[in-house]
Specification:
Layout lengths: L1 E9 L4 H17 L18 E8 L4 E9 L6 H6 L5 H10 L3 E9 L8 H11 L8 E7 L3 H6 L3 E2 L8 E3 L6 E7 L10 H12 L2 E6 L6 E6 L6 H18 L1
Helix pairs in contact: 4-6
């Protein structure tokens, strides 16, 4: 059985890993004929408000990734991408930001690791860490061919922008959809199985379990604690102790 590590960290803590993320993501975009994405920059690498989640095989190879960029000093990638297409996006993001919002972006899956359902696992992991951040909503801009992953974890269309939330972006052959999770705490818009998994990862962000979102089973080790300070780790350590005692 293939083994996989899915882990989270702040971008500023691992510049080398961020550069590898950028390089691999850029290659995937180029394979789709996309070379002009306005948000495909390295600005997020030095942003303490950016959380990165990567998937790595047993030998340490990175095979997928996703980012969470919190609204702060930098504008969200979604806003930058869509402003010239529909200026109303600024008002939408401003409203969502009143109670804290972040964007899930940069999702990629290496071609050599296709058919494993990795985008679904990365999307679940990204939504699961929302309880560790000061946010109430999450937004994303997804291509039509990744829409199913967003829907499964609770994203819904932002219908007041574009054509019911749909844009022709970044190239004519791709439809992009602006989406939001209205309440990232309850995630009640997610499908039941994904919501259970998200809540499980929130309670125990460090766990290993067997997953089969694609054609093969994977043994996935999750390491999703973003803030690893002593005080932040205490609640999770207590939960893990109780879990081990119950299972003994």
């Amino acid at each position: 059985m293939e083994k996989l590590l899915i882990r989270a960290f702040r971008a500023v803590d691992e510049p080398g890993t961020c550069e590898e993320f950028r390089r691999e993501h850029r290659q995937v975009l180029e394979d789709f004929g996309i070379t002009n994405v306005t948000t495909n920059t390295d600005n997020w690498c030095s942003d303490p408000d950016t959380v990165v989640i990567v998937a790595q095989t047993e030998d340490g190879r990175m095979v997928g990734g996703i980012r969470i960029e919190m609204q702060g000093k930098r504008e969200l990638p979604l806003t930058k991408a869509l402003r010239t297409l529909d200026p109303r996006i600024d008002r939408v993001v401003e409203r969502l930001g009143e109670h804290g919002t972040a964007e899930v972006c940069g999702l990629w899956n290496a071609n050599r690791f296709n058919s494993r359902g990795l985008p679904n696992l990365l999307s679940m992991a990204a939504v699961s860490v929302a309880n560790q951040l000061q946010i109430r909503t999450m937004v994303c801009l997804v291509a039509h061919y990744t829409l199913r992953h967003a829907l499964r974890v609770g994203f819904t269309m932002i219908e007041e922008v574009g054509d019911g939330g749909t844009f022709t972006y970044p190239i004519p052959s791709i439809k992009a959809l602006a989406m939001v999770i209205p309440d990232v705490r309850s995630v009640d818009t997610a499908i039941a199985s994904n919501r259970r998994n998200i809540m499980s990862l929130r309670i125990r962000p460090e766990q290993t379990r067997i997953e089969r979102p694609g054609e093969v089973e994977l043994e996935v080790q999750y390491a999703l604690i973003v803030d690893r300070s002593v005080l932040a780790l205490v609640p999770y350590r207590l939960i893990e102790e109780e879990h081990l005692r119950y299972c003994a």
